[in-house]
Write a structure and sequence with these properties.
- One of its GO terms (molecular function) is N-acetyltransferase activity.
- Belongs to the acetyltransferase family.
- InterPro entries: Acyl_CoA_acyltransferase (IPR016181), Diverse_Substrate_AcTransf (IPR051016), GNAT_dom (IPR000182).
- This is (diamondback moth) hypothetical protein.
- The protein is an alpha+beta fold and 203 residues long.
- It has one domain: Aminopeptidase (3-Layer(aba) Sandwich).
- The protein has 7 helices and 5 strands, in the order αβααβββαβααα.
- It has a 5-stranded mixed sheet with strand order 1-2-3-4-5, sandwiched between helices.
- The longest helix has 16 residues.
- The N terminus is likely disordered.
């Protein structure tokens, strides 16, 4: 299928679905994902794809996530997970925290670099389960990412949002995010794999 990831970062986050119920997020904490979390993260990736209108899901396999996120040095991405229950009790949390609760959301991100501002984060996916949307979980995931950004000297965090997702766009504006099309006149571009291969063969 065509990779829908330019809209993934906002599709089912804090304001993702108007029909989503307002659950309780008081016992949800955010921590860095561990290897054993990735089967559930892989499931949520498919839930996000279905929410976006791609029920067949992405082509990425669990083995890809394990290889690229945990077996590669440096890893190609990092993941934050929102966990409910079994001691989950706050917005903080790090890689050393005990797990065991239910994973109810995730943010899949990677480190990038800007020739203008140096270190950057890119948010590929932000997802919260329907029962906890609009309950503060998406904000907690982004708050934890912001804390990491401060600790690592990151100057900016970038992501995409679906044009028609007005609720998500309003939520992100409330956080201080700006639309680069308006402020800088920038459009997002992509080379898909066939075009990458074609370009690589060009003499």
């Amino acid at each position: 299928m065509t990779d829908p990831s330019p809209v993934s970062a906002a599709a089912a986050g804090e304001q993702g679905a108007a029909a989503g119920g307002r659950g309780e997020a008081g016992d949800v904490r955010v921590r860095s994902a561990r290897r054993e979390d990735m089967p559930r993260v892989h499931e949520m990736i498919h839930e996000l794809a279905a929410f976006e209108g791609f029920p067949q899901g992405p082509a990425i396999a669990l083995d890809d996530l394990l290889r690229d996120g945990f077996d590669s040095s440096p890893p190609w991405f990092f993941t934050l997970v929102a966990e409910r229950g079994d001691g989950a009790g706050g917005a903080g949390g790090g890689a050393g925290d005990a797990g065991g609760g239910e994973l109810v959301g995730y943010a899949l991100c990677n480190r990038a670099y800007s020739s203008w501002t140096a270190r950057a984060f890119y948010v590929e996916d932000l997802y919260v389960v329907p029962s906890l949307r609009r309950a503060g979980v998406g904000r907690r995931l982004l708050q934890r990412l912001a804390q990491m950004a401060v600790a690592e000297g990151v100057s900016r965090v970038d992501w995409h949002v679906a044009e028609g997702n007005a609720a998500a766009r309003a939520f992100y504006r409330g956080l201080g995010a700006r639309d680069l099309r308006t402020s800088e006149g920038r459009a997002a571009l992509r080379l898909d794999q066939p075009h990458i291969h074609a370009l690589a063969r060009t003499h």
